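pinned: reference chain
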Amino acid sequence: MTALFALATSLLWGLADFGGGLLTRRMPALTVVVVSQSIAAVVLGTVVVATGAWSEVGPQLWFAVAAGLVGPVAMLAFYKALALGPMGVVSPLGSIGVAVPVAVGLVLGERPGLLQFAGIAVAVAGVVLAGGPQFRGAPVQRQAVLLTLLAAFGFGGVMALIAEASTTLTGLFLALFVQRVTNVVAGATALYVSVRRGTEAPPKIAWSSLPALAFVGLADVAANGTYALAAQRGPVTVAAVLASLYPVVTALAARGLLSERLRGVQAAGAGLALVGTVLLATG
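pinned: its structure tokens
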């Protein structure tokens, strides 16, 4: 069951990333984040009421609030990076956020093994190779790489925080709901300020876009849930390795549906970043 839930996590995260990247090419990234997370919050609120998860209220939910504040920044940066593309490079680089839980372990007294040190080195090499060929004469690609790194460490922070926010299944529902509500409040505030300053146009959402926005928000929430279930039912290292394969789903979707083609060195760099993630998780 651990493998099944973890692979489902990779599939859901990969498809959510692909959908979010496509939507951001047609509408502002902040709008995509706010609307998709609002839909997810409504659905999660219904689940919380139906399961009686309110009984799990406690001080640990502050971790969910913190995750909710970090999440919109990471998602905004990631969706903007996906819009700049190519997805086949951006998505694998985003997976190196697993370094954050490793750093938390160091602070708590854990010491990484040789595989984890190798994973850090391989992931950094992947970042350089995937982004380096585009640094000269292509500032857009440089921006995409920097945004992806910001998003990666933001996602890693969210993973570390949400892991501390619950210990039961109903508690997980409540934590995810609190996280999403915080996401919406933070994102909506940023959107309001941007509109008032004139840096972003008032959001206009076509009815035809709502199903795609709902899918992105709900797939992201479901991925968090399946990952938590995978980690609860088996070794976290196995769950983390299999759940970290989501960039492959995004890259395959981009290749199959958008006909994206990568330079050889970019593909090698993206692959190294993914290998580094696996080494970090298994070490």
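why pinned: Residues 134-140 have pLDDT under 50 and may be disordered. The two ends are 22 Å apart (CA to CA).
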